[in-house]
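Researcher: I'm comparing several assemblies side by side, and this is the next one on my list. It has 814 residues spread over two chains. Same procedure as the others: predict the full complex and return the structure.
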Amino acid sequence: MLFNSWTYITFFILAALILRVKYLPWRYSLAVLSILFYISWDYRFVPLILFITILNFFSAKFIDKVSKIELKKLILAISVFINLAILIFFKYILLILSMFESVFDIKHYVSHFHSIILPLGISFYIFQAISYVVDVYRKERNAEASYLNFMLFIVFFPQLIAGPIMRANQLLPQLKKRPKINNNDLKIGMSYFLNGLFLKVVLADNISPFVDSAFDVNPSLLGFLDISTMGFLFGWQIYFDFFGYSLIAIGSARIIGIMLVDNFKDPYISQSIREFWTRWHISLSQWIRDYLYVPLLRVFFKDQRPSNLNLLVILCLFVSWSLMGMWHGSNLSFLIWGLMHAVFLLIYRINQKIFPNKLFKNKIVKLMSLGVTLYAVMIAWIPFRANDANHTYELFLSLISHENFLSLGLREDTYLIAFIITIGYFLYYFVVNTFKVKNINLEFIFILFKVMMVYIYLQAKDQFIYFQF
Amino acid sequence: MVYKFYLIPIAVAIIWTSFSLLNLTGSDGNEDLLNDGTSVLYEQYEDIPIHCGAYPELKECIDGAHKSNLDAVLLFGNSQLHAVNNISNKSELVALRFHKTRRKVNEYVVTISYGNANFEEINWAMENLLDKIKVKRIFIACVFDDMREVGLRPEMLETNQLQENAINQDFKNSYIFPEIPIQDISESLINEFFTDSPAWNTRHELKYRINVNLRKMRNFVFGITPETKRKILPHAYERNINYFSQILKKTSEKGIETIAYIAPILHDEGIPYDKNEYSKYKNDIKDITDFYGAKFINLEKIVPNEAWGLKQNTQLKSTLEKDYMHFTETGHIILAKSLNEIIDG
């Protein structure tokens, strides 16, 4: 069930009440509710998710138990291999087969794989499971003794479909016993829930038709201004959509007494790409850093600290970002998106090397950095939203073409909305952070407005963008 | 922003109560025309719908035509066909008048119209009709304004999805979940549960009103009036022209007589279009109709100025303003007569 639906609100209220009943075993109730939540999407993948829990639970147990380091390594390798094989099978098999299609005559076999559907949330829960096994291998934690606890760690319904990707040390201890809920939990949980719904149903879903129709336009009829606007508009849509989802997930968990990590921290006010990635989809970027980028560096440099511009370091950067892109899907345009960010990060590192640190403390330079970072990030959303690599190529070609450079080929409202949201966001950010007003009447007016808008606009129609990953 | 936890439930209660007390109709403001000047009328003949929009009404129109066993004449167009200014109790629109006249010669007129209908939508409607009824003749109203519109409206997409799912039960070729059946059931159960609640039913109308007022505010800020010249959008124009060609290609392949007419528009103090663009548009439509052996008729000036009415203000004012697209019943009488004359020569 979609978070932005009356069904989820009803389900969640009932779930929260059931979990408060003292006579019912809390962990079992949560497990049943989580599985029910997953069944509401598609019952066919319940065995798969249970298999993932069993595989990783026992892998970690064995790693913990055996003393020989080679054996530990072998179990870890097998476990990670099976996890990734499952992920690759569901996500990339068509891409892989189509690559071989031109070399071998396998058209007939490829057609069988077209019926494969992506199990919801697989990219998220497999990453979560892998991080757990690796943590146990690294001795950052002990293997969990109870299967039920571990299963809950994977299937916990508020974060099952699209994260935040939690670490075992953050979530597992909270799932071991019934949490005590205080007013603060309810206050934070309900605020997050309401704000998340507002971002999704009032902002993201109302921007979505403009984005869809803009990306439907033949790129050759568009120019620099059009494509820049499309990048900005989709940038706002995906932000409100995914941030909204994350807030509902975190809010739902908090209301039942579980704390999830924040996934977004005003990413568009970043003054560098590096800063952006400490503020956007934080749980995924940290996962990539801790379980991919840093281990890759260790392979080449052991415990040394190489220069950021060392060729091997740059190679690790590009490998990590390619995989970050491909994690989102088998479409090559995701790879382009990942590589664009790798290039941006490389430019950032070069800038850090060339220019003195003092320069970046200058207010005008800060403002310019903000503008450049914002534009770079927004333009990088173009391949993320484009239909495929070819569409991306055509859009970028039009972006730099002098032909329609300043022409306005989209519906007038598209520019207006992109402009209003961009200005509105920075104004809102400035006002909220400058005048920290604590007035209960003003607060109540805000709540009334948000409740009213959510109530009017809520309908279970538009999926969250990240559900397809 | 983190709120005091009790404020949200209080806000929900206040919103629910106040919405219950609002005396709204629950209508979703059909096609943006629910206003003081203009009314919407989808016609029936002997209690059978002969004028409709998308599904499920479209199905009733198809059934009616099918049962009559007569040759069908289809009339496709935009809100000009289902809207009337200064309506009276006995007003009859072009759909009914045209239907009545053709009925005398054993032809069954079905009118299909949507607000701001683009050619992609007309093509969609045609595809849903051609295989289901025996079509003899098709009229297509060509409106320059609608060349700015693209894509299918949600109810059409929903119908496509339903049809696709019916054929495609095993979700072949779908990468992500194409439908959420359990949620569909529960959402409709929740809807049913609250069906008698005024607070629940006012949501559609409030959403409509918010959207209309946002548009009015935009028009006010940017000084947009009915006289403001609307430029073409190259991509939308190209797409519509392509769909128009597709429509004519299909009808020509099926041997259906097709008539494309330039829809009437108020010519009071000029028209709200760029003259060059409008001329090019008329030429393009004519060229395509000629290419496919269809008939092209220009009816842009058939409705005299006095037969055009006034509509709700497009800005934040309460006064009515010129309506360039919709006429009074007199306009409908003239249009119906012209369409008949085209057939009868």
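Model: For your comparison table: Residues 185-468 of chain A form one domain.
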